Amino acid sequence: MKAALILATQQFERHPALEDPDIDELFVVEAEDRFRRLPYHQHKITLLLAAMRHSAARWEAEGRTVRVVPLSDGVGFAAGLERLVRDRRPDGLAWMGATDLGVDERLSALCARWGLRTRVYPDGLFLTPAEEVDGWFAEHPAPRMEDFYRWQRRRTGLLMDGGRPAGRRWNFDADNRKPLPRGGVVVPALPAAEHDGITAGVIAEVGERFAEHPGDASEFWLPVTPDEARTWLDAFVAERLADFGPYEDAMARDEPFLFHSVLSSSLNIGLLTAHDVADAVAQHASASLASREGFVRQVIGWREYMRGVYRAHPELADANALGLHRRLESYWYTGRRIPRDLPEPVRVVLERVHRWGYAHHIERLMVLGNWLLLRGYAPREVTRWFSALFVDAYEWVMVPNVMGMSQWADGGLVATKPYVSGGAYLQKMGHWWESDAAARDSAFTTAYWDFLAANEDALAGNPRMALALAQMRARRDA
Ligand code: FAD
Hints:
By secondary structure, the chain is mainly alpha-helical. It has helices spanning 32-35, 42-61, 77-88, 103-114, 130-139, 145-156, 197-209, 226-244, 264-267, 274-283, 289-312, 331-334, 344-356, 361-374, 379-389, 395-406, 423-430, 436-440, 443-454, 456-459, 466-477, and strands spanning 2-5, 25-29, 65-69, 92-96, 117-121, 160-161, 164-165. The strands form two sheets. A five-stranded parallel beta sheet has the order 3-2-1-4-5, sandwiched between helices. A two-stranded antiparallel sheet has the order 6-7.
């Protein structure tokens, strides 16, 4: 008898184990220790458990044998798997290669100890096979996302017109990235959450067992099955894609989602594949090419590129180019007693993250990440916080995005300059303060000048920082 272990982040409708004629049983471990490794947002725990239980119910309904170690047993991952192996006595174990580094090696070591033969299916979370991404990064010691993205477009044929990019341009940024009009815009609502008995049970269990974690399980809102995730994808393509491009960098105090897809929580656990999402968007010809290209760039470009950076640069996990050491205060985790003098955008987005476990890209980068970098928090502390609070956070995507893109801990591998700004940029893209003068005089702007002064030596050799440093010196010397 051979068994396949289905990992929590691999809830694929067509998991390769289901098509493997050698597999007799499916193993699922709801590992208590995994959910307690960090103070994870209750919505993230709910998402994973509800998705795992729906998958198990579906496989059983299809007549498969599923063996589950339930969360209520309070068993850790390795102990839970060992229990299944001792009870069921398979002679081999199969699993899909995990995206986070080290997982496959630990599983192989356990199987060797138990005398099991192993089979590892390719990681299905990405369009690009791991070896091909590794090959590209090996050939590009100074990797640039734009080069990777063009390679992906040619490789996949998405938005290509023969050998040339559709519309004769690779990049439509000039048409995109607008602030919202002053009068506001109508943002279509996300599909409503309708919880069945399985999800309702998970919500109750998480609310009870993880009561001290951030978030409120009873407000859970995300898709947990491939069918539900497809409904979200269809709704995004039909209702919000057309405005994705123009407003992808916009922010609004009362709109947490704007025209973003909110599909990362589904993509990162296999409810949707990158293929499903990129194809649906590329083919939706009634949205402008600028919007479709802007979105496809995120999925086949940024998402796959970041996974490549993570694989090629494991040293990123401990980087700290600017030598920053401040620790996060407890309100970041609890959401309680947020200081009154925290700048308005940071307070609003922090409250949002506690409510939803989500903020869109530009809020992660230019509000939260920007502020945390300006204020000198240690990059590993920041990564830990993002990992705990966000519903779509896993090591492979956290490390390059937070350590690399957002906190510049790599000293310039992912981003050619630190993503920092004062209040003026935030005001332009989000109208956070009552006037431009208030934005200029805000604590955000003060923190920006202080950061440049404190890190002047470290940034002086970077030509892209020359103007900002010159402005800082002119102010300081005035
Ligand atoms: P959309 O704006 O609709 O974009 C579409 C899709 O593109 C996303 O669903 C995502 O799959 C992909 N994508 C876009 N940019 C990136 C990127 N830089 N890296 C990886 N995928 C990308 N993304 C995560 O999936 N998990 C994280 O934990 C995460 N943490 C982040 C932390 C910081 C500080 C920053 C700056 C970015 C982070 N991102 C993370 C990337 C990006 O912000 C999110 O993928 C995106 O906001 C998810 O919301 P959405 O599905 O509405 O995205």
